Amino acid sequence: MLIKSFKIDHKKLKPGIYINDIQKFGNTFITTYDLRFKIPNKGTYLLNSAMHSLEHLIAHFYSKYYPKDKIYFGPMGCQTGFYLVVYGKKSLDWLNQSLEKLNKFIIRSKQIPGSDAKSCGNFKNLNLITAKREWNKWYSIRSNWQKVYK
């Protein structure tokens, strides 16, 4: 049985925000967002240093500012984006508001959280400049983001 994201037609995906899945566990909902930075299978992928750096920045942000909401934030193995998993049935408005705050956080960042040998297993593969460049490209096209896929 294929997982839900493998059933999505990746030939149609564009950069944007998608609700990947909403699952109910008892009385609790879990929402998985797909933050798609790149068009799949077009030869443009996130460089590992940018992806790794964005993972540190964004995971830190949601853990610090939304600790009761965030379950997990991490990269897609295909290097085209990230998954954000949160408690509850959050709206895209909630996500957009949190991304506005995240944008300010990334712009103001002078260093990557957890960027030393004690905190990270590959700390030499972090680059704030490439992370900010990829973030700015993605965030600047937000008016064109597709909102939901099923």
Explain this structure to me?
With 150 residues, the chain is α+β, with helices and mostly antiparallel strands. Helix content is 32%, strand content 21%. It has a 4-stranded antiparallel beta sheet with strand order 1-2-4-3, covered by helices on one side. Helix 1 (48-65) crosses helix 3. It is globular, with a radius of gyration of 15 Å. The mean pLDDT is 90.
First and last CA, distance: 17 Å
Strand-and-helix sequence, N→C?
EEHEEHH
How much helix is in the residues?
25-40%
- Per DSSP, the total helix count is 3
Shape: globular
Q: What is the average of the pLDDT values?
A: 90
Radius of gyration, CA atoms, in whole angstroms: 15 Å
Concise description?
With 150 residues, this protein is an alpha+beta fold. Helix content is 32%, strand content 21%.
Topology:
Elements (H helix, E strand, L loop, with lengths): L15 E10 L2 E9 L11 H18 L4 E6 L5 E7 L4 H17 L19 H13 L10
Antiparallel strand pairs: 1-2, 2-4, 3-4
Helix pairs in contact: 1-3
What would the keywords be for this entry?
four-stranded antiparallel beta sheet, 3 helices, 32% helix, globular, 4 strands, single chain, 150 residues, alpha+beta
